[in-house]
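Long-time lurker, first post. I've been practising inverse folding by hand and with some scripts of my own, and I keep getting stuck on stretches where the structure tokens seem ambiguous. Below is the full token string for one chain I'm working on. Before anyone asks, I'm not after the true native sequence, just a reasonable design that respects the backbone. If someone could post their per-position residues I'd love to compare against what I wrote down in my notebook.
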């Protein structure tokens, strides 16, 4: 199944859906490690990235940013010369309403009604909410 476009999840709408104990099949976070480089070190320069406007970031996008930043830092410096910390944790579960498309979709799709015994599809992923 293809991923939905990012414009569907960019804006923050509605209440966060975080109660994992009530739902089944929630995918685990794709972020492998939140701390990279030398964890206990004293560094002369501290850099912080901040967002300009509130948004949502998927866990796969956070992992891709972590990999890209780690690759750039290890190429430019030594592993002992930096500490990279990923602060946001993707704890909000994404939900989407599956819709049938194509010829005859109006006969197949039943709206929010359960067309089969499986009422809820597994969630497509998790997201972190970023605020300025």
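-- Answer (accepted) --
I ran through it position by position. Result:
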């Amino acid at each position: 199944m293809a991923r939905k476009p990012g414009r569907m999840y960019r804006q923050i709408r509605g209440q966060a859906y975080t109660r994992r104990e009530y739902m089944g099949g929630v995918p685990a976070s794709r972020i492998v490690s939140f701390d990279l480089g030398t964890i206990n070190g004293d560094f002369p320069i501290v850099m912080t990235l901040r967002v300009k406007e509130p948004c949502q970031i998927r866990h796969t996008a956070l992992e891709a940013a972590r990999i890209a930043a780690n690759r750039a830092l290890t190429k430019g410096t030594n592993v002992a010369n930096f500490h990279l910390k990923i602060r946001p944790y993707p704890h909000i579960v994404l939900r989407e309403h599956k819709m049938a498309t194509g010829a005859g979709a109006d006969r197949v799709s039943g709206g929010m009604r359960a067309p089969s015994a499986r009422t809820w599809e597994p969630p497509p992923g998790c997201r972190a909410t970023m605020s300025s």
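A couple of notes from the structure itself: The chain is about 15% helix and 15% strand. Residues 30-38+54-87+128-132 form one domain. Happy to go over any region you disagree with.
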